[in-house]
């Protein structure tokens, strides 16, 4: 059977094995007739659109009941794909879910390719490309804040901005075309390059601004790789537990590519920390900790941020000093722990020793200073007051970042061409390139290959 855009497609659209309810989504012209053959309850052909209907899925071949279900009927065009969409909400676990999917498939739908629902939403004009990518980011979003970023993108904030910039470029290109028709006037040539320069400068500034948000965007999406470092007994495990405990709800264990890599995510004041190398500071086998400095080296190299713990109830040891030196090159915050005990360290001396890096005083035991620690991390990360600019458009997607960098360099070419006094019609080529590249972000000038590649990254069922 040859796959086409016209097929009615189906897939399980909830994470397999997670949660009590699973949803099978069916989209296309035959969505309703297919499900109707399997549904015992109201006549789905007669129910109003956007309603949820109680009933049972029955295997037509033997009249056996498979599951008790709620079926949502959503008729085109106000649906995710802009086609007729039927969603079967079932609760019978993996087995029943799979069985229903098999029935749907044997009665006329075909299994959706990964991302095919979203691809249809795109093809049918419901989402533009950057919105489609936002859906993908949303699936992976790890904290509320990155969820916000993805949602804004879904709203089309980025698309709107990009389209505006394209329009600006188009306006000037059109003007250039008009002016080129009057080559006899030198003044026109002069005016045209002035106009090009202004536009190129303006657009380039906006693009650079967007690229600046990319680093933060990346962290929001992937987490800030954070290592908790310190000699034995300073309170590393206690800190880890305190962080994990305060944020139980969103802690996830993500099995990495190798079997024994475990990453733990924790949301600290809106900054997702990806705690690395936590295996060593779990109290399963303290032998591991004794290896101390050597073990920490790898974590120090990989980390974006180091939380260096020091026990202020004891004088600085040789090992403390070694770790201070070893972490010098990485962004670092010093946690002076055990403030509930008498102090054996002079704060001023330590400040000098750590080159003025922030020092936060805590008693993890008595849970004091934890809020200050959180705020210090957040401040460090969002130090430009991103907090108050939640509506700012952020770029988080690697493909967008790549394209924006190309746009930036095309515009640099435009400007240096003008500086060098190149003829306007040559400069125009680079300006057109920038316009095309921006179009690739929103999919206004897309290629088929790109689409296939992109949508194949989606989870099945989205
Ligand atoms: P690690 O070896 O660096 O992981 O340190 P632990 O977290 O295992 O802590 C070592 C010991 O210090 C434990 O007995 C903790 O209860 C204790 N400890 C941790 N934080 C504090 C603190 O703020 N004050 C006091 N007095 N003890 C603490
Ligand atoms: Zn420990």
Task: Explain this structure.
The chain is built from 16 helices and 14 strands. The chain is flat. The protein folds into three domains: 9-126, 2-Layer Sandwich (Gyrase A, domain 2); 135-219 and 397-443, Up-down Bundle (Four Helix Bundle (Hemerythrin (Met), subunit A)), CATH 1.20.120; 223-389, Rossmann fold (3-Layer(aba) Sandwich), CATH 3.40.50.300. The protein has helices at residues 31-38, 93-106, 116-123, 129-140, 144-155, 157-180, 186-222, 236-246, 287-290, 293-302, 318-326, 347-353, 370-381, 398-419, 424-442, 448-455; strands at residues 9-12, 22-27, 39-41, 51-59, 64-74, 85-90, 110-111, 224-229, 253-255, 262-268, 271-275, 305-311, 332-337, 359-361. The two termini are 23 Å apart. Strands 3-4-5-6-2-1-7 form a seven-stranded mixed β-sheet. A seven-stranded mixed β-sheet has the order 9-10-11-8-12-13-14, with helices on both faces. With 462 residues, the protein is α/β, with parallel strands linked by helices.
Counted up, domains total 3
Portion in helices: 40-55%
Spatial order of strands in the largest sheet: 3-4-5-6-2-1-7
Mean pLDDT: 79
Bound molecules: guanosine-5'-diphosphate, zinc ion
Fraction of residues in β-strands? 15-25%
Reading the helices and strands in chain order gives EEHEEEEHEHHHHHEHEEEHHEHEHEHHHH
Question: Could you please say which CATH topology of the largest domain applies here?
Answer: Rossmann fold
CATH level-four homologous superfamily name of the largest domain: P-loop containing nucleotide triphosphate hydrolases
Choose one word for the global shape.
Answer: flat
Radius of gyration: 29 Å
DSSP E strands, number: 14
Number of helices: 16
């Amino acid at each position: 059977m040859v796959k086409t855009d016209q097929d009615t497609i189906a897939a399980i659209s909830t994470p397999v094995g997670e949660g009590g309810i699973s949803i099978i989504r069916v989209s296309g012209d035959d969505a309703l007739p297919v499900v109707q053959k399997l549904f015992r309850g109201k006549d789905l052909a007669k129910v109003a659109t956007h309603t949820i209907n109680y009933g049972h899925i029955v295997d037509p071949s033997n009249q056996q009941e498979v599951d008790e279900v709620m079926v949502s009927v959503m008729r085109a065009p106000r649906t995710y794909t802009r086609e007729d969409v039927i969603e079967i909400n079932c609760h019978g676990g993996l087995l029943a879910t799979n069985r229903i999917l098999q029935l749907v498939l044997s009665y006329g739908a075909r299994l959706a390719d990964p991302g095919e629902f979203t691809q249809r939403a795109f093809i049918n004009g419901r989402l533009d490309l950057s919105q489609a990518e936002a859906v993908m980011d949303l699936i992976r979003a790890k904290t509320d804040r990155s969820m916000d970023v993805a949602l804004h993108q879904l709203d089309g904030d980025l698309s709107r901005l990009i389209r505006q910039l394209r329009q600006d470029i188009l306006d000037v290109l059109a003007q250039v075309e008009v002016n080129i028709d009057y080559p006899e006037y030198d003044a026109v040539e002069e005016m045209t390059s002035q106009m090009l320069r202004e536009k190129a400068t303006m657009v380039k500034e906006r693009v650079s601004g967007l690229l600046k948000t990319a680093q933060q965007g990346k962290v929001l999406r992937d987490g800030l790789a954070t290592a908790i470092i310190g000699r034995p007994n300073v309170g590393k495990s206690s800190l880890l537990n305190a962080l994990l405990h305060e944020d139980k709800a969103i802690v996830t264990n993500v099995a990495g590519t190798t079997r024994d890599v475990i990453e733990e995510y924790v949301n600290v004041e809106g900054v997702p920390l990806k705690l690395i190398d936590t295996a060593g500071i779990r109290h399963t086998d303290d032998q591991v900790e004794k290896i101390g400095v050597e073990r920490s080296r790898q974590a120090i190299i990989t980390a974006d941020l180091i939380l260096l713990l020091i026990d202020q109830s004891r004088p600085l040891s040789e090992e403390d000093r070694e770790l201070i030196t070893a972490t010098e090159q990485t962004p670092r915050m010093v946690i002076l722990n055990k403030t509930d005990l008498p102090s054996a360290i002079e704060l001023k001396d330590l400040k000098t020793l750590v080159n003025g890096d922030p020092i936060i005083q805590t008693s993890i035991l008595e849970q004091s200073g934890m809020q200050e620690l959180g705020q210090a991390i957040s401040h460090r990360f969002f130090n430009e007051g991103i907090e108050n600019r939640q509506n700012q458009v952020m770029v988080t997607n690697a493909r967008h970042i790549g394209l924006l960098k190309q746009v930036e360099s095309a515009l640099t070419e435009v400007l240096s061409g003008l500086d060098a006094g190149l003829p306007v019609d040559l400069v125009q080529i680079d300006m057109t390139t920038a316009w095309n590249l921006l179009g690739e972000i929103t999919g206004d000038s897309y290629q088929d290959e790109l689409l296939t590649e992109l949508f194949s990254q989606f989870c099945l069922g989205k």
